[in-house]
């Protein structure tokens, strides 16, 4: 979705948070509930949504079939190493 379309939704007063790329992130912009492949951007969007109050931790875990420990590890990785800490292929480097 382009930045203009996101801005139009924001102007319609849909709840939003600022996503990892600095743009407005609404519920519609979040990864689909059926997501199986978790790339850095998708993980960061879910963390931003929970931190910003767009989703509760419980609803995020239920929606994406995550454990609270798995979600907490995403937050910890972002806090310690930024978005690059979410890389699955480099996880040992960041521990």
Structure commentary:
The chain has 95 residues and is mainly alpha-helical. It is built from four helices and two strands; from the N terminus they run H-E-E-H-H-H. The protein has helices spanning 3-11, 40-51, 57-64, 68-81; strands at residues 17-18, 24-25. The chain has a two-stranded antiparallel ribbon. The chain starts with a helix and ends in a 14-residue tail after the last helix.
Key attributes of the depicted protein:
single chain; 95 residues; mainly alpha; two-stranded antiparallel sheet; 4 helices
Number of H/I helices: 4
- Fraction of helical residues: 40-55%
- Span of the ends, CA to CA: 34 Å
**Counted beta strands:** 2
Q: Indicate the radius of gyration in whole angstroms.
A: 14 Å
| Strand arrangement, major sheet | 1-2
Give the overall silhouette.
globular
Summarize the biggest pleated sheet.
2 strands, antiparallel
Q: Tell me the series of helices and strands, N- to C-terminal.
A: HEEHHH
Low-confidence stretches: none
Strand residues, percent: under 5%
């Amino acid at each position: 979705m382009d930045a203009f379309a996101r801005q139009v939704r924001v102007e319609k007063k849909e709840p939003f948070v600022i996503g990892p790329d600095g743009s407005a992130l609404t519920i519609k912009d979040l990864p689909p509930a059926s997501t199986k492949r978790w790339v850095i951007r998708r993980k960061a969007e879910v963390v931003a949504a929970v931190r910003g109050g767009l989703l509760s931790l419980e609803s995020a875990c239920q929606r994406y079939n995550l454990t609270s420990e798995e979600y907490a590890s995403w937050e910890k990785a972002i806090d310690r190493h930024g978005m690059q800490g979410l890389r699955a292929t480099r996880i040992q480097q960041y521990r």
